[in-house]
């Protein structure tokens, strides 16, 4: 359960008086997620999400995320805008953290996607990329190669090896290989960079919302395809690559936005990078999650298995 900062009902009640959203009916900590503290809020008028931003979100980046969500919403993408308070302010302070009240979107996130759902998710990713072609703001990727190296070093080889014997050597060898092999000829864009199934809300085979834009950044556009592929095409524990999900996801994307030959060729390396990124953030959290946080840590080895699969099977991205 991701609640790092505990907020009392009285504090939420007082917080809501800043807005024109009715009065508090109920507030519950949300079970999913590992990054921020999230609460489901019901008022006399509507339902909302209250997010308090924790360690990996720099409050200075919130205006970028708000502008991106407003841009996507204006282009017809189903994303949840932040709510403005009575004075027009969207970014607040609550319990010493930056906080936003966010529109609640209906839908559920699937745990075992069907090919039809993967196709829909790929198509929506492509639509988002298409909508972002004329989005002019930029944000450096806070989870780039330098950040991966820092995460590895902060875990320490011993820390990594405690998670899985030999993991330190695997991680450092992959970091070196990816530094050399990373493509520098591909188009950049603002990307989501974390489009896991739990960040795609669906009803049946239809996507009802994309959420959790807090890793959005400027980077190689096809890296977003790689992240989404790594997140969607395996069993949760990283075993059992599902070829049909992969074909559906890539097919859905290609229906909405072109994958160039250069991008397709680079996808195996980009997917190894994606797998390493989530392996490392999960490994860092595995070692450093506060004992009193209401959070279920995510298994880093699930992304070690994905990394090893991509190392052995670059052909999964062939057209
Ligand atoms: N706008 C929204 N509408 C409906 N539900 C939402 C919304 N935003 C968040 N949620 C719910 O809250 C959960 C956690 O939100 P979110 O994924 O943003 O948290 P996080 O801690 O940043 O997670 P992650 O570990 O994926 O980075 C989601 O899985 C979803 O169930
Ligand atoms: N989606 C990520 C959490 C965000 O870094 C994971 O599942 O590890």
TrEMBL record:
Q: Give the classification, highest ranks.
A: Bacteria, Pseudomonadati, Pseudomonadota, Alphaproteobacteria, Sphingomonadales
Q: What is this protein called?
A: Homoserine kinase
Species assigned in the record: Parasphingorhabdus halotolerans
Its annotated pathway?
Answer: Amino-acid biosynthesis; L-threonine biosynthesis; L-threonine from L-aspartate: step 4/5
| Keyword list, A-Z | Amino-acid biosynthesis, ATP-binding, Kinase, Nucleotide-binding, Threonine biosynthesis, Transferase
State the family it belongs to. Belongs to the pseudomonas-type ThrB family.
At the top of the EC hierarchy, this enzyme's class is transferase
Which HAMAP family does the record match to this protein?
Answer: Homoser_kinase_2
Supply the CDD domains for this chain: HomoserineK_II (cd05153)
Q: Which GO terms describe its biological process?
A: threonine biosynthetic process
Reaction(s) this enzyme catalyzes, per UniProt: L-homoserine + ATP = O-phospho-L-homoserine + ADP + H(+)
Write down the NCBIfam families for this protein, in alphabetical order.
PRK05231.1, thrB_alt
A Pfam family it matches: APH
Q: What is its EC number?
A: 2.7.1.39
PANTHER family per record: AMINOGLYCOSIDE PHOSPHOTRANSFERASE DOMAIN-CONTAINING PROTEIN, AMINOGLYCOSIDE PHOSPHOTRANSFERASE DOMAIN-CONTAINING PROTEIN-RELATED
Tell me a Gene Ontology molecular-function term this record carries. ATP binding
Task: Report the transmembrane regions from the record.
Answer: none
Could you tell me which residue ranges the Aminoglycoside phosphotransferase domain spans? 27-239
